[in-house]
Specification:
Shape: globular
Structural class: mainly alpha
Strand order of the largest sheet: 1-4
Length: about 300
C-alpha cells in the first residue's frame, strides 16, 4: 500500500478513535503526576524514600519531556514553601497573595522564584548534579517539551498536538493552581498545623495523592499521605508496587494515632505532642466515645426504670 502523506499528517502512525486519544491523554498525564509526587516531592524534596537509579532517571527524563522543570529549582521552591509557609516569603501562599493570584498565576510565581539565586542555593541542595542534569536537563530544559510535541505529532497526527497541550497544562493547573492554591484555602483538616493547609478530598486519585495536602504538611517527611481509614493515596500505591519490584525503599511514614485503653496514668512529652498534632482526630474520637457512653447509660437507666 503506498504511503499516504495526508493520512499520516492527520492521524500519525497510530490512528485511534476519539476515546483512544482521551485515554492516551489521561495515561500520559498520570505518568507525569506520578513523577512529580514520587520523585520531585516525596523523594527529592522531603527524602521520604530512596529510588533505584533506573526509576530515578526515568522520572527525570519524563519530567524533562513533559514539564521542562529543573529538579533543583522545583525542590528549592517547595522546601522554601514549607520553611516560610503562609508568610510574605512563601513563594505561593493564597493567604498572602490571594487565591485568584495563586490559582491563575501559579506558574508565574514559580518562574519568578526560580530566578531567585538565593532560594535555589539555600534550599536546592542534595539534588541530582550529574552530567545529564548539568548538560541536558538544566541547560536545555525546554527542548524536552519540544521533543515531546514532535513525538506526539508523529504518533497521533493533529490529535497529538491537543494531547501535548493537555500535558503542558496539567501540572500548572493541577499543581500550581489546585494544590498550592485550593490546598491552602478550602477543604477539611485532620491536623492542626501552623498553616492553612487542607485536604481537598479524601480520595487522592486525580493528582496522585497530593489532594491530601494537610496530611502532608502535618507529616512532611512521610512517604504516605493518607492517614485515616477512608483516605486513599494513589501515589503511595505506586510506591508500594515499586518497593515490591525493588525500585524504591521507604524511609519514613507518619506514625499511626493509637489511643490506648487504659491510657497512661501520666502522659509523657511524646504523648502530649501526639495529642496536640492530632487534636482534631482526638476530639472526634472523644466525642464519639462520649456519645456512645451516654447512650449506653441512658439505655441502662431505661432498663432500671422498667424493672
Amino acid at each position: 500500500m503506498p504511503f499516504d502523506l495526508l493520512a499520516f499528517v492527520a492521524h500519525g502512525l497510530m490512528p485511534l478513535p476519539w476515546w483512544g486519544y482521551f485515554v492516551v491523554a489521561i495515561v500520559l498525564t498520570q505518568v507525569t503526576i506520578a513523577c512529580v509526587t514520587i520523585f520531585l516531592h516525596r523523594a527529592q524534596a522531603h527524602r521520604a524514600l530512596d529510588l533505584h537509579p533506573i526509576a530515578s532517571h526515568f522520572f527525570r527524563f519524563w519530567l524533562w519531556l513533559t514539564t521542562g522543570m529543573v529538579t533543583k529549582e522545583w525542590v528549592a521552591i517547595h522546601r522554601k514553601h514549607h520553611a516560610k509557609v503562609e508568610t510574605d516569603e512563601d513563594p505561593h501562599s493564597p493567604q498572602t497573595r490571594g487565591i485568584k493570584t495563586v490559582f491563575w498565576r501559579g506558574t508565574e510565581l514559580y518562574r519568578a522564584e526560580a530566578k531567585n539565586a538565593e532560594t535555589i542555593e539555600k534550599y536546592g541542595r542534595g539534588t541530582p548534579d550529574d552530567w545529564m542534569e548539568r548538560n541536558v536537563y538544566t541547560r536545555f530544559s525546554w527542548e524536552g517539551v519540544g521533543l515531546m510535541m514532535a513525538v506526539n505529532l508523529m504518533l497521533f497526527g493533529g490529535a497529538g498536538l491537543t494531547i501535548w497541550a493537555v500535558q503542558m497544562a496539567w501540572i500548572p493547573v493541577m499543581a500550581a493552581g489546585v494544590i498550592n492554591g485550593i490546598g491552602h484555602y478550602w477543604g477539611y483538616r485532620n491536623s492542626a498545623c501552623a498553616d492553612s493547609s487542607t485536604n481537598i478530598v479524601p480520595w487522592g486519585v486525580v493528582i496522585g495523592g497530593e489532594e491530601l495536602h494537610n496530611n502532608h504538611h502535618a507529616h512532611g517527611t512521610s512517604a504516605k499521605f493518607s492517614l485515616r481509614w477512608f483516605e486513599f493515596d494513589l501515589g503511595w500505591t505506586y510506591i508500594r508496587i515499586m518497593e515490591t519490584l525493588g525500585l524504591a525503599k521507604v524511609r519514613k511514614v507518619a506514625p499511626k494515632l493509637r489511643v490506648a485503653s487504659p491510657g497512661k496514668p501520666v502522659p509523657d512529652i511524646a504523648t502530649l505532642h501526639a495529642v496536640i498534632a492530632n487534636r482534631y482526630a482526638v476530639a472526634t474520637a472523644y466525642a464519639r466515645t462520649l456519645m456512645e457512653t451516654c447512650a449506653a447509660e441512658v439505655a441502662q437507666v431505661s432498663i432500671n426504670v422498667r424493672a
